[in-house]
Specification:
This protein has 224 residues and is mostly helical. The protein contains 11 helices and 2 strands; from the N terminus they run αββαααααααααα.
């Protein structure tokens, strides 16, 4: 493999990221400085909510590309490579949701919508999100979901999953699971949480187009 593949499409990643951060802060700034949660101001929670997905997706890019180009994790950790990767990767997922919940609690009441419609909308969005999370565990598998096909041939030889939420859309993890972030923002009536939910949702699609699709083209011979 051409080792320049490490940086393939990352120019667009790192050009879009500061724009997304700037726009998100510009939209959220007038709603911040309201209150705190766990003695941490909502402004600080906002930046935590931005930094967690940025750290997550930059780490994923580096590990995936270094694994594909140099087999780095397998050379370092041998048969434990996927275990080590799971330990690194998985904590970021609950941290995304927890940090937005804490932001919402510190910024509660800044979303100018009636509570009842917000609660109903939040529940409506939460249903497909939870169904998708269940589908990942039941139909897809956690190891495959965290990028097992970058590490093992057997995951590359598995058929595409078309069951559960993946029957609705083949990219259910990005399309539907992230709706839970909006639910949290609506349940807490937080404008800042809603804006960071939107940031995370857009930014994960940046990851998809800049990292995942090029990786799939290398792994499977075509983008899917």
């Amino acid at each position: 493999m051409n080792r320049s593949f490490l940086l393939k499409n990352q120019l667009w990643h790192f050009l879009s990221l500061p724009i997304l951060i700037f726009v998100s802060y510009h939209l959220a700034s007038s709603h911040l400085g309201v209150d705190s949660f766990l003695n941490i101001q909502d402004t600080h929670w906002f930046w935590i909510c931005i930094l967690i997905p940025v750290a997550h997706q930059v780490i994923v890019w580096l590990v995936f590309r270094l694994q594909l180009a140099y087999d780095l994790f397998t050379r370092w950790f041998g048969k434990w490579d996927l275990v080590v990767w799971a330990v690194i990767f998985l904590p970021f997922l609950p941290l995304r949701f927890i940090s937005i919940a804490f932001l919402g609690l510190s910024n509660s009441g800044t979303l100018p919508v009636p509570r009842a419609p917000a609660m109903i909308t939040g529940i409506v969005l939460l249903v497909p999100a939870l169904y998708t999370i269940w589908s990942v565990f039941y139909h897809f598998g956690v190891i495959r979901a965290i990028g097992g096909d970058h590490f093992r041939v057997r995951y590359r030889n598995m058929p595409l999953v078309r069951e559960g939420a993946f029957k609705i859309t083949p990219n259910a993890m990005y399309t539907l699971a992230f709706l839970a972030l909006y639910s949290i923002a609506l349940f807490t009536l937080s404008s800042a949480a809603l804006i960071t939910a939107l940031f995370q949702h857009i930014y994960v699609w940046v990851h998809y187009y800049c990292t995942e699709r090029p990786d799939m083209a290398v792994i499977y011979g075509s983008e899917r």
